[in-house]
Specification:
- The protein is mainly α and 120 residues long.
Amino acid sequence: MLLSAGIRAQGLGIRKRYADVFVQCVAMRDLKDVGWIRWKAVLFLIAGVFACALLLLEQPTLKIAVLLVVAIWCFCRAYYFVFYVIEHYVDPGYKFSGLISFARHLTAKKRAEGRPRILG
């Protein structure tokens, strides 16, 4: 992965000395420390509460509050569907690692289904 990221960096016209920085930014490791995972969850919660509060301060109506709750609930269910249902019921061979990974999985699967089968 590091090599392909470095090649992409140079292919994008990034000089060699900046390519190493690009590779370090692209090649992040998985977050495994429980403390950092919890901190990340707290930051997401704070950002969500802050965004909801700003929306409700902008338009403080019951209609906006209800629509906001429904939108949040629907996005949570959609994320659960992508994360859990696909991995455990639809395609057990697929391991979820993010929404971009899921989009790539879908496009690769559609491309594979669209190809004619070669009988041999």
